[in-house]
Design goal:
The chain has one domain. It has 4 helices and 4 strands, in the order αββαββαα. The two termini are about 25 Å apart. The structure holds flavin mononucleotide. Flavin mononucleotide binds next to β2.
Length: about 70
């Protein structure tokens, strides 16, 4: 909610936004769609990226993150 409140108070028109998050089971929890609706003028790049926090701490997770970043 704190992120949504921040977004609502700022103008993201023309800004490039790359959604990503960690979680522990809920994936993106629909937040990428919510971001789209809260930032109508923003350029959302990529389809978003998420992984579990436990995976993010591993070499495999870091490689997945690097691969995603390289593909943007
Ligand atoms: C869309 C979304 C889904 C999340 N789902 C979970 C979850 O299923 N379980 C959990 O323990 N934390 C969940 N989190 C919390 C994050 O894993 C993380 O702990 C939190 O965003 C704080 O990390 P930060 O300080 O790096 O932003 C979720 C966060 C987001 C944004």
């Amino acid at each position: 909610m704190v992120v949504y409140s921040f977004i609502e108070k700022h103008d993201f028109s023309g800004k490039t936004v790359v959604p990503f998050n960690t979680h522990e089971g809920s994936g993106n929890a629909g937040t990428y769609e919510t971001l789209k609706s809260l930032m109508p003028g923003a350029i959302l790049k990529g389809d978003g990226f998420n992984m579990t926090g436990s995976m993010a701490r591993t070499e495999e997770g870091i490689k997945k993150l690097d691969d995603w970043l390289s593909g943007l």
